[in-house]
Amino acid sequence: MLQMNVKPVPTLDPRINEIRMLTAQIVNKEILPNERKLWGARSEGATEEQRAEARGLREAVKDKVKKAGLWAPHLPPEYGGSGLNFLEHAYMNEILAYSMGAASLFGVVAPNSGNQKILLKYGTEEQKKKWLVPLTEGKMESGFSMTEPESAGSDPRSIKTTARRDGDQWVINGRKWFTSNGFRADFFILMCRTEGAGKDNGRMTQIIVPKDTPGLKIVRGIEVWGRHSDHCEITYDDVRVPLENALGRAGSGHEAAQERLGAGRVYHCMNSVGQMWRAFDLMVERATMREVHGGKLETKQFIQGFIADSYIDIQAARLMTIHCAEKMDGGGDPRTDISALKIFVPAAYERVVDRAIQVWGAAGVSGDLPLAAMYQGARTLRLADGPDEVHRILIAKNVLTRYHAGESWDFG
Ligand SMILES: Cc1cc2nc3c(=O)[nH]c(=O)nc-3n(C[C@H](O)[C@H](O)[C@H](O)COP(=O)(O)OP(=O)(O)OC[C@H]3O[C@@H](n4cnc5c(N)ncnc54)[C@H](O)[C@@H]3O)c2cc1C
Known about the structure:
It is built from 12 helices and 10 strands. By secondary structure, the chain is α+β, with helices and mostly antiparallel strands. β9 and β10 form a beta hairpin. It is globular and about 80 Å long. The two termini are 40 Å apart. The site of flavin-adenine dinucleotide has 20 residues, from β1, β3 and α12.
């Protein structure tokens, strides 16, 4: 099996290079050779012995990650993380994403990781003690409950779920769906509309709701891509929680969600780059081996075109993401770049994986390779976290605003 070929980049900060190399070492030595054992044991037909072996392997990899100082890159050391800065974390993602699922072995599991960051930034000391600490210690699980069946997720101002004050409690009513990790979660960070001043965006509040609160009901896990999932539909029917369960000040929910999504989009795109990198390696390797119609696939110009176009897609996606990450890190306004990469990178990812599947033929859509899962992930990304159309509107709006102000666009 091919290994990920990562070397230090001369223009990068030495610490970022060190993190990339350490991550690649774990991915290449500990994860790639064991991929089948690590994840295959989760399938229905797996024996208890195989499951136990997989658990043991996963714990062993986690220990190595901790020893390398790479555990939970999104958390500061006082919460058990490695405290990487934004750029270090972004660059780490493209390496660990080379193996689908590796992020969980590095302590990054959505939606817990996003919730941890929100609790870290907006939580009171009391909330951190009660929810963040057990979440980081793996003693609790969580979900993020924002999207609703009866309102457009791509327009957060349309959220219908409400929380009204009654004495020292919030009373919550509404219906959510696609709340990931719903079955396992011990609590949800719920986005809802609260009374008060301000326009729609200024009325959104995030409230912590323990799953066992009376009135909260998990209706079902929604089937996704033909499989059972833990993306849950949940009803909140006169659910009462103390006022102090609000995260941040009332009305700050929209701002907090945007922040979560902003940095999150860069991390997701670096993950996509790592997965494209893997799909590319698989495709090229296969092209050098498979004989068809009197020659190796690599000698056919159609396939050479796949290789060239995929190279271009990956480089463009990678540089676009790094450009945005550097702008964010430098305190610039990255909003237009975030929207651009949120459109371009998942689409490029989809194209690269699509070509890799084509080159592999039937094996490409089988469970023997990670390509089918990548393909579904890439397609889903085009509508989750803000669909393509909304980001196109935002780019055009930002660009036109500049020109109306008498300026032109600075691509630097
Ligand atoms: C696997 C998975 C996991 C998820 N996990 C979570 C989670 O943990 N928590 C959570 O809260 N949500 C989650 N989501 C939901 C996700 O964030 C939403 O699906 C997404 O925000 C889009 O919202 P929607 O589905 O309501 O689509 P809608 O908002 O109804 O949009 C549908 C389509 O309308 C079009 N559209 C929208 N706006 C415009 C416009 N202005 N102009 C032109 N066309 C437009 C776009 O093509 C868009 O795809 C998850 C979704 C999936 C698939």
